[in-house]
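Extended Data, record Fused response regulator/phosphatase
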Amino acid sequence: MTEQANPDSAAATVLVVDDDDTSRYILASWLRRDGHRVAEAADGAQGLALLAAATGADRPELAVVDVNLPDMSGFQVCERIKADPLTAHLPVIHVSATAIEVNDRAQGLYRGADAYLTEPIAPTEFLATVTAALRYARARRRAERLAGRIAVLNQVTLDVYGARDGRSFAALAAAGAAALMSAPAAVLALDLDGREVRAATGGPGEGPRRFGGAAAVLGVLADASAPQEGTGTRTAVLTAERWTGLTGCEVFEGTGQVAVILARTSPGRPPVALAVPARALGGGDRDLFAQLARTCALALEAQRSLREEQGLALALQRTFLPSRLPSSPGVDLTVRYVPAGAGTELGGGFYEAVETPGGLLLAVGDVVGHSLAAVVVMGELRQALRAYAIEGHEPHVVLDRLDAFLAQFHPGVTVTACLVLVEPGRRSVLVADAGHVPPVLRDPDGAARHLTEHGVVLGLGGAHAQAVRHPVPAGATLLLFTDGLVEAPGEHLDRGLEALRRRIAEGPRELGPLCDGLLDLFAEGQQDDIALLAARLD
């Protein structure tokens, strides 16, 4: 059978349900002469059974149902067709030689029919009604199918943009392509380190498969593809054998030809290649598939840009931290700084150790918020802290001046900070806290306690209480840190602080191993940067 030019008017399989043999024969003859395939039933039960058993090309696309049937009315047949999710889309045309009143036609249409014809029926009117019903039903199914595929495309977009790395990106893109095209799919791309990542799947819902093959396959595919088309896409069509030999990927065996769409975001950027059987790209499906390829290329480009920006921002963050720690008699210092985890925004945590006229001032703080702006404020605040400290102010006075600095230059920004002044020749330290997690002091015998001198967060304009003096025996260890070390989602901060205190009490005496051990225990999976400053007070 040759299809007509307009797919909405193409021939179809039509179910004719009529108990009158002559009437059924006439209707079926008209349909067959117009190119349609016909399935015939003499009553409602037989017609419904044919619908339930039909599969593939034999499944009717339209039903012509007589109103007066021996076992049930045509209205009931129509209602059962429309009530079944598998056949609800099927257009139903009622025909009748007896139920020809306006109320009959209205009842048929109200109960689900798409058209109602009364005999005598002209062949042209009947076939025109069939064509119109098919055209409408096919257009509706096509729109529903497109809406479903766009929903899949949206979900795949979210998935690939959320990929953790190149391998997970390839697996998610292959699964998304298979779901979108209802076919086997494969993906080749370069990860953020320039290595080829590949994944394939045998169809929707199947797990990803890795495959090997020749090196630099992307370059070979780019050479074999057609000139650029659309927005940054190119197409290569290979035989399934050629594809398998080139890539080592066997998911397309027996599919004939493989269509590969390569997409790149701009000249010079590595492409992303998505492949499916060529037969899957019928109608408007190719445009959806090309859009998915562009989406994947943009997702990888976004990851590259984010890595580059994070690298620059981390480099900037490092420049705002001390390049070295001072050497002060009787005080050994060790510091550890761990930037926020990959994929998270930058934090504003900082540390400082500066010699002042009154002794060695140790400081740890954190700008509230996660952004490059927080890093910039951190750098400025640290420089201001150094300037106020070398003027010889006590810790609480330094906090007052930092508060005024924020109010003047960064209103609305809040910062937590803890300052500890180690005075030379004294067995004590001065502690001033501005809403920061308290430091831990460990005595030489291993007993450890928090120095809980809470004060007002910087940036709120409140006065800061006099620094509190704490006795410190020779050989004691003092640890200052940011809350990134102990804060865990869903857990109260006090639990983390207590767990840290116990670990410090049990930890080694040497500062380096002590700090490394704490990071091993507490830093994994943290989403905030961590500053850890340890001092041995001898």
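Summary. The mean pLDDT is 87.
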